[in-house]
Amino acid sequence: MTRATALLALALSALAGPASADALRVRANEAFAPCLRPVLTAFTNETGRATVLDVGAPDPPRGAALVVGDDSEMTRLLEGGRADVRTAADLGDLPWVTVAPPGTQVRSLASVTGARVAVLGGAAGRVARESLAGLPPGSLVVSRDAAELSSATYALVPRSLAGPGDHVRADVTPLVATAAVVVGSPDEAGARRLLAFLQGPHARAVLGACLDARPTAVGATGVAAPYATAVADWWVPACSLARNGYNNPAELVGPPDALNLGGRDNYRGLMSLGQGGWVTLDMGATVVNGPGADIRIYQATSNEEVTVYASASASGPFTLLGLREPCGRRGLGTFSNFCEFDLAAGPLAEARFLKIEDGEIYPCLSGDTLTEGADIDAVQALNFR
Amino acid sequence: MTGRYVLQITPAAGCRAPIATFSFPMDAAAGGAAPKPGTQVVLTGDPGGLEAEFLNEAQALRGGVGTTADGALANESLRLWIRVIASGPVVRANDGRGEVRSGTMMGYVAFGGAAGDEGELGSCSATHTFVLGAR
What we know:
The structure holds two protein chains of two kinds.
Chain A: H1 3-22, E1 24-28, H2 33-47, E2 51-55, E3 66-69, H3 71-79, E4 89-94, E5 96-100, E6 117-120, H4 126-130, E7 140-143, H5 146-150, E8 154-158, E9 166-169, E10 175-181, H6 188-198, H7 201-207, E11 230-235, H8 238-243, E12 259-260, E13 267-268, E14 271-272, E15 278-288, E16 295-299, E17 305-311, E18 319-326, E19 337-341, E20 350-358, E21 375-381
Parallel strand pairs in A: 1-2, 1-3, 6-7, 6-8
Antiparallel strand pairs in A: 3-10, 4-10, 5-8, 5-9, 11-15, 12-13, 14-21, 15-20, 16-19, 16-21, 17-18, 17-20
Helix pairs in contact in A: 2-7
Chain B: E1 3-10, E2 22-30, E3 38-43, E4 50-57, E5 60-67, E6 72-73, E7 78-92, E8 98-113, E9 123-134
Antiparallel strand pairs in B: 1-2, 1-9, 2-3, 3-4, 4-5, 5-7, 6-7, 7-8, 8-9
């Protein structure tokens, strides 16, 4: 760098300094950043407020006032109260695509031989990486570098990071762009303003070029479906009982009623299962294998995983219906998210008792909230007699 | 089950793990009595880095085994990430303590280099096996 160039750079940085300090800081993961850039520009054009977009995992927020990440990255932020769960908003879905050289007609990257496959790193890429389990050892390139991912010959990436080549939509659960205000940020008011803008029609139109609208949830059947009527048995490790704040299994009985009452770790109406804890519930009716899903679990925090078993008897034997299934669908109008299970997965024709087990399995001794483990609000039978 | 143990985790063959078995030094202690008796087994020197919380059933253990987002460094100098439900019968070891010689684990495992990323050497959800042996 010449002396003149250095002086120019110094002058520019001095000019930029105050503006940067005043800018609203947003942090988004590598996949959502390309989607957000144009909408942040639109926000600045409309409001006059400058923004700075930091790219990387949203947890920790690293000084950002607003964070945007996939459900899997937001869980501990929202659960721990560092981001305000009451502000959490879905901006849309981002599907995964496979990338391959033009004309190669690759049906599955898991069958690619002699070439390396790039895939997104971090929590947001966990399910995608797992889908490539059939690849030979050493074939994966795990990266969070957008340039590296978009220049890969073969890749499994969120659509926003796909480079040249043939793109085919992959059978991997789309990322869910979740935005939330960081608690205690000096620019919390600005973050709330931006969040409101992101949910408005102008921003939705801009985001729509990158994110898919979230599918509308199917509501309960026309007949009032029964909720769990009694707790038959339960266990939560002593470590989790000592550290968690919501240990009452009776909270799972009855319809969904969980709420965040404001502030960190301030809830009602839920039970946190801790590390691998479980509750066995009497559904008060016979759940039957009918059309579609038969059981709905209401879970309060992000998409924390749950495992579900079913039995005719409170003492078992229990049949596994789903192992560590993410439980984070939205759209029923409840505070809690939900996930659904089918007796056919057992397969079972009917069941009376359901065992709901934590699937997050986060080490108790590393937990730093009062709500470690899946946070269960209610359990509902969708097909029953 | 109390005292020092070695946890040996053998991922399912379909996971194509870079090595057959990952082993970790662990410490076991009683994990409370209510609502049911349990056993806590943690990584020696980093108890929250790899932790098992077991329910004591009739001559068996069952519970969740997990790591944080950092995974846990195995004796074999590779890193393992794990989120599984483990179970297995408890039998008597040579020194009179209990141990598990033929356990199963259902769930997610991922492999990486000692300083590598989660899953860079593969990952999968399947049924794996484990041994929790007295040492």
